[in-house]
Amino acid sequence: MSKLLDLLIPARCASCGAPGAPCCATCQTAWGSLSEIIRGPTTGLVPVYALASYADDARRLILAYKERGRRDLAPSFGRAVAEALVHLPEPEPCLVPVPSRRSASRVRGGPHVRRIAEECVKALADKGNPATVAPVLRLAAGVRDAVGLTRAQRSANLDGRLRLVAGACREKVVLLDDVITTGATAAACTRFLDISGIHVSAVVALAAAG
């Protein structure tokens, strides 16, 4: 059915509109190699990396994926993360996706960062690099949308609202997110996992805002 739909309604790039793929080859170059991001809450806690600045093509692609139903972008995001992860000193990375609010997940057709992580693992497997996804984090009720919140408000928003989900997880993981803003969410997740006996060796995001 998907192949038939592709013939009837060819995919267009979610950034530039070029026909042929959800993300054209030109716009895919928005994702570069890992660049370290310095944020107050994560300084001295965990290294944080992003593949792009949250602007131009990267911003358009992420917004299309999160807010405009372009779930077909997940494979291209996953490939970009997979290409970057090979430069981390993790032979077989275990990816822990940053969790989403339940209401946001319903709108986005499921946990959108987890979907990227799963596509990343597929891309790594295709190149003979084994990896796993461990969706062991969830948010309790009461978490607000973080858009527009200050760093202090983001920290307070997650305080006491992270939960550990039963499931297989290694003792050393990579935390995966879509956009790093203040670093408060990455810091909160890292600290929570640490007290749960899970060490976060790095945080990787598609893009960094600011």
Overview of the molecule:
This protein is of the alpha/beta class. 36% of the residues lie in helices and 19% in strands. The chain has a six-stranded mixed sheet with strand order 1-2-8-7-3-4. It has a two-stranded antiparallel sheet with strand order 5-6. Strand 7, helix 8 and strand 8 form a beta-alpha-beta unit. Helix 4 packs across helix 6.
Short description:
With 210 residues, this protein is of the alpha/beta class. It has helices spanning 2-8, 25-28, 56-67, 74-85, 102-107, 112-126, 151-158, 184-195; strands spanning 35-36, 48-53, 94-97, 132-133, 137-139, 162-164, 172-180, 199-208.
Keywords:
210 residues; two-stranded antiparallel ribbon; alpha/beta; single chain; 6-stranded mixed sheet
Largest sheet strand order: 1-2-8-7-3-4
- Structure classification: alpha/beta
Number of DSSP strands? Answer: 8
Low-confidence stretches: none
The number of helical runs is: 8
Query: Cα distance, first to last residue?
Result: 41 Å
Average pLDDT level = 87
Helix content: 25-40%
Order of helices and strands: HHEEHHEHHEEHEEHE
Rg result? 17 Å
User: How much of the sequence is in beta strands?
Assistant: 15-25%
Describe the main β-sheet briefly.
6 strands, mixed
Gross geometry: globular
